[in-house]
Amino acid sequence: IIGPSGSGKTTLARVLANAAVPRAGAVRLDGARYADWDEETLASHIGYMPQRIELFDGTVADNISSFGPKVDENGQSTGDKVVAAAIQAGAHDLILHLPKGYETELGPSGSGISPGQAQRIALARALFNDPCLVVLDEPNSHLDADGEAALATAIQAVRARRGVGVVIAHRAGIINSVDKLILMREGRIVEFGPRQAVIAKLQAAAAPTTPTPAPAGARP
To answer: What 8-state DSSP symbol labels residue 95?
Structure first.
């Protein structure tokens, strides 16, 4: 999803992630309206990384698992899922370099790590437990080149497992990782389609027009 600031991109992301309720209409997942889902069940199918990263007072592992139980309903340790999500987000190595690895305690609002590290950990949280819908709002705003490459790999991994990734982006690099583009202006979708087709249309609209030369002998 692309568009100028204030065009409604973040609002759309919040609605898709069930972090905000639409005033009209409905959002559906697998054909069922969000309103018809059990809240906890719906949350397990959606991974969300908001524009403003919020990590909490607790360990890195706790933040990735959203402070969920240490063992899931099948008796499987969630620690394996935490590591899998971190690897998918390209955060595993940076976490291992923290003082206590995954058990490193973060302060309030995730203090103690850099914005880039916080963004990768937040991405791992959005990917935790392989949700079928992943909504990422400006996920590369604090990432370096390695972080952007890891983000592109993560988006491809979501696609490979037949999940759906929705990415809001200002920086052009990550656009090459998506299949379709939405352009928003003033709260409305004004373009939607395959990435190359939308880009070609935007480039054509932005190209300067060449005046048609007047016929020979014509008066001004």
So the answer is: H
Residue position matching structure tokens 């400006």: 138
Q: Are 134 and 164 in contact (CB under 8 A)?
A: yes
Could you report the per-residue pLDDT of 138-165, keeping only the tens digit for each?
Answer: 998 888 888 888 899 999 999 999 999 9
Contact 49, 126 (CB under 8 A): yes
Q: How far apart are the first and last CA of the chain?
A: 46
How deeply is 205 buried, as exposed, middle or buried, from its count of CB atoms within 10 A (0-12, 13-18, 19+)? exposed
- Spatial CA neighbour of 198 closest among 213, 179, 217: 179
Can you spell out the DSSP letters for 28-92? EETTEEGGGS-HHHHHHTEEEE-SS----SEEHHHHHTTT--SB-TTS-BHHHHHHHHHHHTT-H
Q: 136 has which bridge partners?
A: 49, 167
| Helix count and strand count (H, E) for the chain | 8, 9
What is the model's pTM? 0.87
